Amino acid sequence: MARSMFRFLSRPPETVTIADADYLLRLPVVGDYRAWTGLRSESRAFLEPWEPAWRAEDLTEGAFRDRVARSEQEFSAGQAVALLLFSRRSDALLGGITIGHIRRGAAQSCMIGYWMGERHAGHGHMSAAVGLVIPYIFSVLQLHRIEAACIPDNDRSVRLLEKAGFEQEGYLRKYLKINGQWRDHLLFSRLAPPDGPTEV
Question: pTM of whole model > 0.85?
Fold first, then answer.
């Protein structure tokens, strides 16, 4: 597999930016609200089968401000890194990826989750984004294990994880309440290379 070029741009310690020639991943800011709510609204039917049920107020500006504040707090506490994905060529918001459930101590692990706007799906954007965050997780966060869970019939997500070098480890019964129903999930993981961090 060809190695992608990636770089971590210098920023104050309260934020993070991950980028290559085509994509930019960064923490959300309040000014992202219009692009975020527009993409989420138009993609609602596309995203609902794979996400927790949406409340009427979830797309309001107030809810987004709360989301931004929460992401800043969780990042500062070392608990999660919630990133929005942008095209470097058009500056368009494409989707998002979250490095969550960060555990230190003996575990040194995290779990990733992601979403993509419907009109941007199927073009390899999220595959590229996952390829960028994997080196960040192993090299910068210095974690040992990345986990991801997806609904068994989400073929697109299964293919993405397999392409990114994840291996299926288990079957989680009634794992998450998705769109109002408790759904089974497949558990995937990828481990840090034994000889140190590597690009993908």
Answer: yes
- Give me the count of residues in the chain: 200
CATH number at residue 135: 3.40.630.30
Task: Decide the pairing of beta strands 81-87 and 109-116.
Answer: unpaired
Profile the chain (200 residues) by mean pLDDT over runs of 10 residues: 39 71 96 97 95 90 96 94 96 97 96 97 96 96 97 95 97 96 97 68
CA distance 163 to 8: 23
State the total domains in the chain. Answer: 1
- Cα gap 198→144, rounded to integer Å: 12
3-class SS of residue 121: coil
**Cβ(200)–Cβ(190) below 8 Å:** no
E strands present in 9-160: 17-19, 23-26, 81-87, 93-103, 109-116, 145-150
Domain interval for residue 61: 7-148
Joined tokens for residue 168:
């299926």
Amino acid at 131: G
